[in-house]
Design brief:
alpha/beta, Rossmann fold, 2 domains, eight-stranded mixed beta sheet, two-stranded parallel ribbon, 13 helices, about 50% helix
Length: about 325
């Protein structure tokens, strides 16, 4: 990519034909962006967005180095990257880790690109937590949460090599719902703003027991941070006090200084080993809690209830443990 200043904002998008991606694309076009859509099915993309002089299409796959090279060869200088690939049917290791890594490394070398936005996932650093294992059990050959985190680290690493030129925003979405269902079920929450927090703090039962957010809210969050100055990682969901279009919300938070400082020691294998250790520790804690609970039930209700409780908890622990062992080799 040439290094001269771009005259207009041009965003390279992945996942633009997805449910959230379509909303983000439309909002960027309405803000005057030119968009270059990297997609697997160009015909579907053209049917989705129609004839629009402000859209370029580039057909390719995130598993192909050559296709990714072509994605960055826009007619006009790229200034932004918005990475939204993933979702149903995706190979998370190829898309959210290796694909994001390849895009980040290309953005690192492209002087005209100043901003990079990624939709990641809650529990990204806890793929083997109880919530993560339950979610991961839906996928046969991959660990979505771990792939998201490895992709995040690849972006941080690439940004660190640009001498402050490449800004990024990583949005870990939690509790995502479809708009129509969300508006009907949680009309009050639909009208509220967004919640941003840093770290990896979402609780599974908390997500399950509260409204979460809808896709249009997530799209607003993506577009609102499109020109962020700095490097940030946020968990984002609904029912908060930040306006959906607030583009300065991040200024009251800290940049990713700790995460960036730890990059040198966070090799791929070490990250996975630490996550495995975390999982084993949580499963041991569950086993201890089950034993303590059974003793309490025996003391209060009798042997039958205690034995039933132990057998039930053992079955749950064995199920989660089997998922863990299956997923252990996925990355």
């Amino acid at each position: 990519c040439p290094s001269t200043k771009a005259l207009q904002s041009v965003a390279l998008l992945t996942g633009a034909t997805g449910r959230t991606g379509q909303l983000v694309t439309t909002k960027l076009l309405n803000q005057g962006f030119l968009v270059r859509i990297f997609c697997r099915d160009e015909e579907k993309a053209r049917q989705t967005f129609g004839l629009n002089p402000n859209i370029e299409f580039c057909c390719g796959d995130l598993s192909s180095t050559q296709d990714i090279e072509e994605a960055f060869k826009s007619k006009k200088q790229l200034t932004h990257v918005v990475f939204m690939a993933g979702g149903e049917g995706a190979d998370y290791n190829i898309v959210n880790f290796l694909g994001l890594k390849a895009f980040a490394e290309k953005a690192e070398l492209c002087d005209s690109i100043k901003h990079f936005v990624v939709i990641s996932s809650a529990w990204a650093t806890r793929p083997y937590s109880i919530a993560g294992l339950l979610f991961n059990s839906m996928y046969q050959d991959t660990v979505p949460m771990a792939s998201h985190y490895l992709g995040e680290q690849a972006l941080r690493s690439a940004a660190c090599k640009t001498n402050g030129r490449l800004n990024y925003m990583i949005l870990r979405a939690g509790g995502l719902n479809e708009d129509d269902r969300y508006a009907k079920k949680y009309p009050d929450a639909y009208a509220k703003g967004l919640t941003y927090q840093q770290g990896d703090n979402f609780d599974f039962l908390g997500i399950a027991g509260r409204p979460g957010m809808c896709r249009s809210q997530l799209a607003d969050a993506v577009v609102s941070c499109i020109n962020v100055q700095g490097r940030y990682t946020f968990e984002v969901t609904g029912s908060g006090n930040f306006e959906r279009t607030d583009s300065s919300f991040y200024k009251s938070f800290e940049e990713d200084k700790v995460l960036i400082a730890s990059l040198d020691s966070n090799r791929h294998e070490e990250i996975i080993t630490a996550m495995h250790t975390q999982a084993v520790g949580q499963l041991k804690t569950m086993a201890f809690a089950a034993s303590a609970g059974s003793i309490a039930l025996v003391a209060h209700y009798g042997w039958l209830q205690g034995i039933c409780f132990v057998l039930t908890m053992d079955a749950i622990i064995l199920m989660i443990w089997s998922v863990f062992l299956t997923k252990q080799q996925a990355l």
